Structure prediction request, 287 residues.
Amino acid sequence: MPWFFATAEHDHFIQNPTSPEKIRRVGELLRLDSQSRLVDVACGKGGPAIVLAEAFGCRIVGVERAPVFVQVARKRIAEAGLESLIEVIERDARDFSLEPNAFDAALCLGASFIWDGLDGTLAALAPAVRPGGHVVVGEPFWRQWPLPDEIDPEGFTSLPGTIERFQAAGLVPMGLIAASEDDWDRYESLHWRALEDWLAENEDDPDADEIRGLHEEARDQYLRVRRGLLGWGMFVGRTSRTVRISAWNGVGKGSSCFPGGRPAAARAAGPSASGDEGASPTSRAAA
Prediction:
């Protein structure tokens, strides 16, 4: 069967319920400039990295496990003339480590499942950021809390509860840029269109019934539950200004993941930009 997320996200430039404008607002919060160095874990097709590099001239290491997304990301970066600023590494985050204090900011947008949730993601990313640097995580949150008994929280919590998880990780909350209903509807509608196009073109495919079943289940779940109850935002936390000496694990000596021999840094990749095999087919944002 074709990979569901590669089909569903065929038309997405940014694979989360947000926009280039809001990605640029994140860069403004981070005070990015041409000297800034970032790592973007599970960078997908490179949308946020391209937006930030174009707007601020910063250098970015994107890490992504899914070959189909890596191929698209590298093509887009080349077409944008940003190969000197962005490098995409095809790796799995669980197999690689983050060098301590290597980046000005670490991003993980819609892929906290890599480290089994927000707590693990913050614990993995914060040590890779210089003292006083930032961690940015795109994460769902529930607008209503507690939830009705029949709804599984899926490891997510309320908006205040999400901020509390940042604070528990030793990060100072510096900003929140939340998805609007328009952001959500645009994001989900692109899924619907891409899947309906695929089904119309592949009606005799032996996997068409399964793809349609996943598509209709995800659409129904969005309309009945997620659109009203599930939020999503990019949460920005600042690290302590005290120097840290430990990280998720160290990258080996002599390695470098910046174009032109930049300092060794985080080489992490999500199981995919949109979700691993166990993720909900609804969306990357709610995986």
DSSP finds eight helices and seven strands in the chain. Residues 12-180 form a domain with the Rossmann fold fold (CATH 3.40.50.150). Helices lie at 4-8, 20-30, 47-56, 67-79, 118-125, 159-168, 181-201, 208-229. The beta strands are 37-41, 59-64, 86-90, 103-109, 129-142, 172-178, 230-238.
